[in-house]
Amino acid sequence: MTTMLKAVNIQKTYGSRGNLYPALNGIDLEIQKGEFIGVMGPSGAGKSTLLHVLSTIDSPSSGEIQIAGQQILSMNDSQLSDFRRESLGFIFQDYNLLDTLTVQENIALPLALSHVPAREIKQRVQQIASTFGIDDLLDKYPYQISGGQKQRAAASRAMVSQPELIFADEPTGALDSKSAANLLDNLALLNEQEQATIMMVTHDAFAASFCKRVLFIVDGCIAMELHRMDSKRQLFLQRILDVLASFGGDPQ
Amino acid sequence: MTLLRLASRNLLNNFRSYFLYFASMVFSVLIYFMFVSLKYDTTIQQQVSGSLKIGSAFNGASIVLIIFVAIFIWYSNSFFTRKRKKEVGMYSLLGVSKKQIGWMLFYENFMMGVLALAVGIIMGAFLSKFFVMLLMKVMGYEAIGHFVLSAPAVINTGIVFLILILLTSLHGYRLIYRFRLIELFQADQRGELAPRASLLLALLSLIMIGTGYGLSLQNYMESVIWRQLGFVMTPMLILVLVISGTYLLFNTLTVYLLGLMRSRKSYFWRGIHLVSISQLLYRIRGNAMILTVITVLSATTLTAGGMAYSLYYQNEKSILLSDPNSLMFLSGGDAADTKIERLIHESRGVDVRYHEKLSALEMTVDMSSIPSAITGSKQVFTVIPVSSYNQLADWQGNKEKLNLRGEEAVVLDAGYSQQFSPAYQGASLHLHAGKVTRNIHVIQLCPYNVLNSGIAGTVIVLPDEAFTILAAQTTPVPMQIYGLDGGRQEARQLADTLKQHLSESSHLSSQAEDYSAGMQVFGVLIFMSGFLGLVFLAATGSILYFKQLTEAHAEVDRYAVLLKIGVKRSEIRKSVYQQMLFIFGLPLIGGMAHCVVALTGIFRLMSANIAVPVTICMVVYGILYLVYYLFTGHQYYRIVTQSATH
Ligand SMILES: Nc1ncnc2c1ncn2[C@@H]1O[C@H](COP(=O)(O)OP(=O)(O)OP(=O)(O)O)[C@@H](O)[C@H]1O
Ligand SMILES: [Mg+2]
């Protein structure tokens, strides 16, 4: 097994002098290729911050990050852009679709930016859209579709370029349980079949139970880690719920 | 009480948008007032009364200015109200009645308008004085020194703007009635459907512009439409056709073409095109109006500038053509001539480059063999020998040397017109002097002269032997010819001095004097077009600049997403400049096309060559415009990328 991502002693402090707020307090983390990792924790614990820092969108105050063997903190702007485009996929907490583009164009965007031939783009967009059940929405604009549909479109965009590492921030936040299960199934499938590495922040224990490993973050530190091993999902869900209860947090 | 507090807090919070609106109203009042003051200025009216062309230029320009001002104010008003929709929605939520809100907006708008009107006129009074003096000085034009606050200008400005202010205030009053609450809250976030353009309308826009162009290129004299509609209605029709055609063009054809590009996936889905084109498509409808206005303004500026500069440029050239020598006068006897020569040599800042004493013949020639529209059956010619011609041609430069023998002759006519002048070339004429009659054969016609037209008419150049034979039979007219080096100002002063020493009958012709006489006529024109040009350029550039920057602020989130998913900054920069190029380029190209057609139409009858001055005008305008483009592109890029991390 090869290491996909390695983070050493990550610190992230918000604010300026006199009014410092430590959002991340020394996080050490290693993610293997093909892992499906869940990140849970109370609101404000630093989950989104961790995701941003690991995914090159934000930079840590201190620490080291390696993705696929590359030191991302020493990359320059243009290298980072290439890297994001070719190796990373994002599903953001707020969907972040471009409202000037149709759903189809939104999904096509990463491929177009990498100069994939138009015919191939069309084919791949079609394929991923039908996986997520939004193929009849392709010609609509983001403001014409529901929140859950937007989230699925965002997921399609993140996965269409078949990135090595996918970051998802509460991808099921706005979905009903059926659509959520559908999306999670797709993520899991992608993880199994394509060996895609996925890191997903979620509040939802049910969503977390699709993962192979779940980190619990409290006050900017990794407080606990659960491995699914070969247990059934139902069993894993129970264990997650137990841990959440022990933190005194609300499981939903 | 709460309403008042709320309103005043809002005023503080929204100071920026209030200020922007107020400033743009003041700016409109300012330029309109300045222009109208000029129009009513007594000295200018005196100048104008003689010239129909300048008078109608003034009237045309003030109509364009009113349209411009109306659109500019309407535009900034809707921009302003759009920003306040949310605030209005909030009042409504708080339980203020629609009527109250409506009146509040009405009063607010009206008060601001009246205040802007007052400020604009006061500023205009001071600024126009300064501006006029500055420009007059630059042009060396002294006729207008004073500039007082004119009552008709104030009244005119007041009426025009009160109407505009009333209209915008009513617009504000109706705001609350026009929208549902939910729409007021979604003011800035509601997405717009990508526009669809009908091919039919797109074609119609081309047809309208084409018809307008066709009409303005027609020969005024021969065209049926011009004759039927007259010289007031036809230009109006052309204006309406071209302006509404331009609007339709921007509103539909651009959308249609961009839509076409969008549907061609192999082009559209390649790199940053996807972003640029969809952004443009999303924005273009909202920009169509403003692009039309800018096209019209650019066309007006360019046409006015091109016309004035052409006349100016033509003046320089036509003076050189009609006055090839700096000074020329009829000799008043040896004593007088020597005195003048001494005066010229003594004068400061002027050096004699050449001095020639020429004896010419004045002969009346029967022209019945080559009849023409402008000369009668007889015409007076000035006859000179070829040796004198060659001497003068050599000094004046750029003129070909002649070699004549026997009956050969050459005609020099600086005002030659293919259409109207006699067909000299190849003609045979008879010269009578005393008992001698000589046949001459015109082997060549030169469309220039070596003698000033104030003294000599059309010139016939003869071989020296033939000239001597004729000269022996009549009294030659002795002429004094000077070529001077030095400043124009000094040459003019010299001419003034010489006039005091020369009699009326010596017909002094001074290049410098004729030049400045021409310049006085074009002075008003150049000044006016310079004024309008500067104002319009500043206004169009600023409108585009502000409009784009406002859009940039609304685009920040979109570009942030792009950066997050791995679009390079360099690609974003490219996309931004591409979009700005489109937005800035369209009206410039449209304006230039309109201008070329208009000028071709106007100058067609004058058969003048205006390519050079008009090109210079366009290049200058284009460069100034380019500065706006680069500046806006730079700022746009800065805004959309500044907030993003990394
Ligand atoms: N740009 C910022 N500036 C200052 N503080 C910030 C910023 N972003 C986040 N924080 C703070 O950092 C802490 C962690 O925020 P983060 O968004 O990572 O929380 P989270 O775990 O994702 O919460 P949630 O589950 O609500 O999304 C919070 O207390 C938040 O207030
Ligand atoms: Mg979060």
Write the layout of secondary structure elements.
The complex is a heterodimer of chains A (252) and B (646).
Chain A: E1 3-14, E2 21-32, E3 36-40, H1 47-54, E4 62-67, E5 70-71, H2 77-87, E6 88-91, H3 103-113, H4 118-131, H5 147-160, E7 165-169, H6 177-193, E8 197-201, H7 205-208, E9 213-218, E10 221-227, H8 233-247
Parallel strand pairs in A: 3-8, 3-9, 6-7, 7-8
Antiparallel strand pairs in A: 1-2, 1-4, 4-5, 9-10
Helix pairs in contact in A: 3-4, 3-5, 4-5
Chain B: H1 2-13, H2 15-40, H3 42-50, H4 52-93, H5 98-139, H6 151-178, H7 181-185, H8 199-217, H9 224-263, H10 265-268, H11 273-322, E1 327-330, H12 334-346, E2 350-366, E3 378-385, H13 386-396, E4 408-412, E5 428-433, E6 436-446, E7 459-462, H14 464-471, E8 477-486, H15 488-501, E9 509-510, H16 511-564, H17 569-604, H18 611-642
Parallel strand pairs in B: 3-7, 4-6
Antiparallel strand pairs in B: 1-8, 1-9, 2-3, 2-8, 4-7, 5-6
Helix pairs in contact in B: 2-4, 2-5, 2-6, 4-6, 4-11, 4-16, 5-6, 8-9, 9-11, 11-16, 11-17, 11-18, 15-16, 16-17, 16-18, 17-18
